[in-house]
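Page header: ASSEMBLY MODEL / two components / 474 residues total.
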Amino acid sequence: MGLDYTLVLWNKHKKTYDKIIGFGMLLYLLVFIILTLVLNPETTAETMIIRAFGSLAVLMLHIILIIGPLSRLNPQFLPILYNRRHLGVSMFLAALVHGVFSIIQFHTLGNVNPIYAVFTSNMDYGSLTNFPFQVLGFLALLILFFMASTSHDFFLKNLSPKIWKGLHMMVYLAYALIIMHVFLGAFQQETSPFTIGIMVIGFMLITSLHLISALKESKIDGLKSEKADDGWLKVCGADEIPNDRAKIFTVGKERVAIFKYDGKLSAIHNVCKHQGGPLGEGKIVDGCITCPWHGYQYLPQNGQSPPPFTEKVVTYGLRLDEGMIYINPDGFEEGTEVEPVKC
Amino acid sequence: MDAGLRKRHKYIWLLLTLVLSTLLIMVIKSLNFNPRVESSYASEEVADPIKEAKHDVMDVTVVKTVDAHVLELNVKQPIKSASSVIFTLDENQKIGQLEGIGTYTFQLENEISGIIIKDVIKNQEILKLEF
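Prediction written out in full:
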């Protein structure tokens, strides 16, 4: 968490993460260039740059898109999610190099504006195999530009998390445009089933991981707790929750995290106000519930971020009856103080 | 994620899976490249050159084997284009792609009267050879 905005809020983990991103990108480009020089030495430098950075951006986009569902399926992948924004901005830069070099190489020698030429040099919009695929790549690059330029907590705060998330979910549209850009463009010339096969496998991997995690989440949403006579829900035994950790339950349509700490129990809404991270998968650090995604913190008894921060989440009433925890499904206002239950 | 966001993710990916799968199948079906002939037919079968064309950039020969026509290209100079795709002159059917200097062989469905090499990115004709 940071109170004021700096360009990048560095810490040791982010530096390590970024070093891995930078090294990985350089390694890929180096291997691509060496293989091209060995297998196809007549390739011009411009073509090599376009292909190397284009394929790098596609590879990075695949990695970015599998991080989310992998983290939902297995919390061990959460550390990769931690700094996904930097991976996204790096991917945009690779895509930008590809796009700029492509426009320079294919559209700057004519007598019309190069951007206008992207849309008009091939007007065969009715054809599937001769479709002007560069238009799809250009539109995807525009989406990635808006996403990369707003990939900062300043925009998250000022646009509101809802609008920001909606804008950043456009990455799925960008992915669809890029997939079609590659299939309608590069594969019009590419005869190798190997490269087509890799793209198809990538598509199947991404879609299946997203669908599997979505089905898993739907299954959890469908779980109903036993209702007591007074309408409270019987959720679990107090000894089932580890110290300084939580268990997550579906209450109505929402998820609630019940934390155990210092011999007490408190319940808050499971969704972090920052980027929607699952608070119940975090732990108590320095007396605060700490989001596993980006470290945002909340006090367990009132769902408020410790001063001077102002984030607040809904809190819930609990009671303990013969070792079993019961929760009131009607949550309180965000940030309402609730006396913790002793256990 | 809250319940609404989880639902949005689920429906977006269901839609993407259906739409993109359909489009990809249609595209892959239409990418009907003829495979390059890897084996040396000349040493195993009777092969008669029936058509030839010569150019500074490449020599082109159509050879008739026992059961097929084969297009043989000997590219002598680099083609200064990011995309060099071969089409038949007769029906504008795609035959394959050139990647640099070297010898290429492609199986043909029918006898052809010539080839056109196009840059499909710029939608421009690079070379036209008639037999």
